[in-house]
Amino acid sequence: MRVAIVGGGLATCYHLLAIDRNLKIQLFEKDGIGAGASGSAAGLLHPYTGSLAQLNWCAQPGIAATIQLLDAAAQAIGKATYKISGIVRCAIHPEDQQAFFNIVRTQDDVSLWDPQHTYSQTGVYRPALFIPNGLSVYTDLYLKGIWHLCDHYGAELVLQNFTLSDSAYFDKVILACGANLAELYPALNLVLKRGEVLICEKRLTYALIGDGYLSLTDQSNICYMGTTSRTDLTDLTLDEATKLIRSQVDPWFKSDIQVLGYKSGIRVYRSLVSAHPIIDQLDNKTWCFPGLGSRGLMYHAYLGSILAKAILQQSPKLIPQVCKITR
User: Fold this and answer.
1) More confident site: 254 or 222
2) Which phi and psi angles does 46 have, rounded to 5°?
3) Least crowded by CB within 10 Å, which of 13, 172, 228, 280?
4) Nearest to residue 78, comparing CAs of 22, 14, 18, 148?
């Protein structure tokens, strides 16, 4: 069977080949592995994302599947792909502290820090939710490791654009191309947001989240600093990106940080109100997997495995109903 995967889709590619090594898979990435939003991700992995820090849908199986793939990628390249750094989510807005209190009452994997303790650990004087099992993922190394596995199993990287007319050469087509899918299928009404991540010289003990975030990298003296995404998709200069991100982060994390550069990418969301990704069959041949938004690290491995099984068994019923275009 000949399969085209357009855009990201490395986890789906891996799971397809894990089931059937005889598949002929071509991965279409015009600018190479990690050139899009996945390569621009800061790499924070924990189950309490969103403005209210609620436990996310399928967070636990999602994170478990991601860790399995992170470990496989690390073994493939002989380098760590993540660190259990712990994540400190600072209370910035009045409602944050009550939301954190509610989480601690129902979940035993988190704790509350008072402002003095947060300050002693991070230099930020605010109450905080501490997520000790939160991961800082080294996205560049992770993507390199997954591709190494896919390449080893026989996948082929095609450095060119994919058009719908190309689908005639394949038995199955998986559209995981994010922003480009919005152009190919405008009826999906996908929401696009551009985000920037500053590459900074700063040593961190924990990853930090407030209005914006700071995450660790595989280099101990380098961190990423980012903030919320923009519906304005225009490119920014380094100075503009720095001003935008620091205007969000500086009010709660005051520190001298040297900005070395930045990365930028466009994320795709199902809508402004739904956090569920989209997995669905568009026709007998074509499947799609967009809309992961800022939760891509949480869901890509778990849902990629489900998608691989659904495709090979030709069974859309395997897909969670909440992820389908029409629920």
Assistant:
1) 222
2) -160, 165
3) 228
4) 148
What's at 163, amino acid-wise? T
DSSP 81-146: -EE---EEEE--SHHHHHHHHHHHHH-SS-EEE-HHHHHHHHS--S-EEEETT-EEE-HHHHHHHH
Domains of the chain in start order, with CATH, are: 2-323 (3.30.9.10)
Assign 236 to helix, strand or coil.
Answer: coil
- At 95, the pLDDT band (50, 70, 90 cuts) reads very high
Contacts 24+ apart (CB under 8 A), 52-59: 52/95, 52/99, 53/89, 53/96, 53/99, 53/100, 53/103, 53/129, 54/99, 54/103, 55/103, 55/106, 55/107, 56/275, 56/295, 56/298, 57/275, 57/276, 57/322, 58/299, 58/302, 58/320, 59/298
- The one-letter code for the residue type at 213 is Y
Q: Sign (positive/negative) of CA torsion 99, 105, 111, 117?
A: positive
Q: Which of 295, 126, 105, 120 has its CA nearest to residue 210?
A: 126
Res 327 pLDDT > 60: no
Cα(266)–Cα(257) distance, integer angstroms: 25
Please check whether residue 223 is in contact with residue 202, taking contact to mean a CB–CB distance below 8 angstroms: yes
Q: Is the pTM of this model over 0.90?
A: yes
pLDDT bucket at 36, cuts 50 / 70 / 90: low
